[in-house]
From TrEMBL:
Name of the protein described by the UniProt record: Succinate-semialdehyde dehydrogenase/glutarate-semialdehyde dehydrogenase
Aldehyde dehydrogenase domain: residues covered: 3-451
Keyword Coiled coil: no
Nucleotide-binding in keyword set: no
Amino acid sequence: MFQQRNPATGETGDSFPELDADAIEQRIARAAAAYAEWRLTPVAERAALLSAIGDRFEANRDRLAAIATFEMGKTLGSAKAEVDKCIAAFRHYAEHGPAMLEERRIDLGDGKAAAARWYPLGPVLAIMPWNFPYWQVVRFMAPTLLAGNVGLLKHASNVPGTAQAIEDMVREAGGADGLFQNLHIPSSAVGAIIDDPRVAAVTLTGSEGAGIQVAERAGRNLKKVVLELGGSDPFIVMPSADIEQAARVAVTARIQNAGQSCICAKRMIVHADVYDRFRERFLAGMKAVRVGDPTADGTDMGPLSSEQGLKDIREQVERAKAAGATVSSVGDAPDGPGWYYPPTVLEDVPLDEEIAREEFFGPVAMLFRAADIDEAIRIANDVPFGLGSSIWTTDAAEQERLTRDLEAGMVAINAMLASDPKAPFGGVKRSGHGRELSSHGLHEFMNLKTVMLDQASPAATE
């Protein structure tokens, strides 16, 4: 049984029954049957369905946001913004996706030609996390459906209502039976689904450990897999930067979603010449964050999503202190029920300690001093992750150097890193592989088929 539980109050909500083996089999069979028809559906009709799903999200915006806030504790304002982002993704792929699927002609010389065409693969299993419970799903779902594939969703166990609501939106928009199905299943049931020959591919957003397990299982089955895993993103500040703005954005980048985001800025790496100025403003900003009821106006940050998450972040901070780090700033968190943790800044974290390379999935920032750009790059790259990064400098040469040398899949220049349906999203190193969003995300789960054209056909000479 999957039970809703409010991380701000401990209050329970609806419960959802766990699927048994027979029910899972029925859903996979429905997915296979739906794919047999959906793959032949004209692209324009697929795009029309995406538009209709976006309309359902828009019509249910407030209700969908309230479900996410109740289940995982994000502020109501950020939950509404997340739903809006989903709507934008559906409309982006509905409008621009068909052009991304147009064939590409290739001149082979000597009057010969070929075509590169995109075709779907089949049912795609998505294993998704709770931190952005709508957006994480939609950024896989929208391109998957447009491609002619169908979706099977294994969502995080603490957001069962969100998972069900997404399936409801597809059905209400006119999606065929089996086109997109939510699976209320434990993690232990995932392996058998990956093994099933009717499931063509797997995508996972989650922890490094979960990514390793899924990649191993998919590899044994020679199935395509896309992984978006953890991150310990650097936020590099150089002397030419607007320090006031950089410090303000750094606070937002660290405490957004209570620090529970793979692309949150987690390590502030600041040039020695401006370290003290940045530090003063950043610490003041972290102390001023308003932590409390996520449904209340004016709240900047709600609770962590789970009691285990709270235990984990407390344990990491204690290990950092034991290694020699200094707690330089601690904001306020409400007393009473709820899994709240105050915004916290750690300084003097020894670079040779493992804790300096870990991901803090909560509102804890590490602040490092760098003597020059070379040291800033060394500190930034000295982690197993390579998801995103943010660089703050107005020097064009520094911008080019940092963009080139940072080991990351994404770089934001003088801005907070954020995902966008129009831009590819993903990382390198132990942050995973493959890309989501944009045309690259659309093509990840498609068969790029080369067609050597019949030279006698009029179509070959157009």
